[in-house]
């Protein structure tokens, strides 16, 4: 029961609280949001990659038999490719001639809305914009449910690993939720409705964690494969979705800020991981 309570608390941190933090962030002026959002993305990249390579992947292979190594490595590869296909199937935005569509004149929010939801915004008005908002809610619910399963899988392996994994989820969820708000508001949702639907979607993180706790408690042999999927998810989000958004600005000052914030994300996660493991 103690472990279940921890899973509920930290899936809530990774889900609901990240939405509320994003909602507070949106109270800032548009100019201020646009200035801060890229910094959050850079930090999230470092945190995600650190958890994948410093925490999850070593845990995947710890205690595994040599004959399992290829299957576990294949799971990471299959996970990366699978998340690409999932993003295409669930979150694809149709856009003429295969070009990126600008959203609403807000480059920073539109681009970040693109980063975690696979693609292109529909036009500026009408049915396309409405369907984009609906797709965000559905896609986020599925994504958050998977996050909850992955957090629970990490907790069932090691409590400290679960804490670090949930922190990494929260690190990338906050800037993601800011992008979600931008799309929902552009789709015609009021501030209150956008907040309500985002919170509702985030509750699926807790649901995924609780269901995983009861379903995975007696399936410890499968946990390395779920952790491999967790690692592939974080790698995919960081490399395929977040990093490309940083290349929009290439001046030296911005590039150095990005590198420093990525390093800060890596450093924080590695430090926390070493502290909780007594290194």
Automatic annotation (TrEMBL):
Its membrane topology: Multi-pass membrane protein
GO molecular function term, any single one: metal ion transmembrane transporter activity
InterPro entries associated with the record: ZIP
Pfam families: Zip
Keywords for the protein's UniProt record, in alphabetical order: Membrane, Transmembrane, Transmembrane helix
GO cellular component: membrane
Transmembrane segments: 6-28, 35-57, 69-86, 195-214, 226-247, 259-276
Domain of life: Bacteria
Location relative to the cell: Membrane
PANTHER family: ZINC TRANSPORTER SLC39A7 HISTIDINE-RICH MEMBRANE PROTEIN KE4 (PTHR16950), ZINC TRANSPORTER ZIP13 (PTHR16950:SF16)
Descriptive protein name: Zinc/iron permease
Lineage: Bacteria, Pseudomonadati, Pseudomonadota, Gammaproteobacteria, Methylococcales
